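Dock manganese (II) ion; give full complex structure.
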Amino acid sequence: MSLENPLQPFLSGVTSFLGLPLAPEPSPAAGVVLGAPFDGGVIHRPGARMGPWALRNASLGMGRLPMPMRLQGREEGARGWSAVDWVDGGNIPTRPFSAEEALGAVAQWVSAWAALGARTLLLGGDHLVTLGALRALARVHGPLGLLHFDAHPDAAEGDPWGTAFHHGTWVRRALEEGVLDGKRCVQIGLRAPRFDSDELAFLLDAGFRLWTPWDIRDPHLAAQLKGDIARVGQGAAYLSLDLDVLDPSCCPAVAEPVVGGLSVSELIPLLYMAHQWASPWVGADLMELAPTLEGGETSARVGAQLALHLLS
Ligand SMILES: [Mn+2]
């Protein structure tokens, strides 16, 4: 079975994500990939606004059919959903100068595609943009479960920066706005040095389950981790992947790299746990790739391949 014509990008000269058909206007589809080229929510190291282009380029020549995880000993385990029926919807026109306007554009575009039955995969862009997608999808599905991979909890107040909306506040805002079901929210990979202890207390009070990289490596906690991830999918769920969950040794080109992160080999099986959910996630994203920073090409390649594991 051949899923695509690998010559398509050569013939057209245009690089869509994974070679998916381009569909710049919302149309009925199983799913849509949407770039969100905004990084006005980044505090220190900008560049994520260029992420969507880098991720598309990094997917050039990449097959769309994942290798089975095992070729020895037993049948391949349950897999999720494939991207064969998806389209690349281009970029959401998030103009670079207003976070409020960018969030509105993201919510509007995600709503338009969701109304036509499409699941959405956002290519960031900084992590603030996720809030726009959550707002749009919660209007359709009600409060969402969240499987969130990140070095940071992203639940700060924001006051010191004079805004409630930046890439470190979107989880708190989403909870306050009622678009998340805190009892079905899990964060994995937390390890960044903190400014205060209120952030974790706030999340625990809301019902979040929190996991550091050292927690997920503890074999005594394996069943609990599996149960936590399964609970996220007991209703409509969103999967958000900040590339800074990975160790900077394999993915350095992110706004806020933090040592001690997950390896790709640790992350992929966790992504596959989401494929066990009774219903697929309604929305997902891949955020914070800043390809203008050192290691940009390598990091983009890592991000593009992880997107395939989100989809397949
Ligand atoms: Mn983040």
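Observed: The mean pLDDT is 94.
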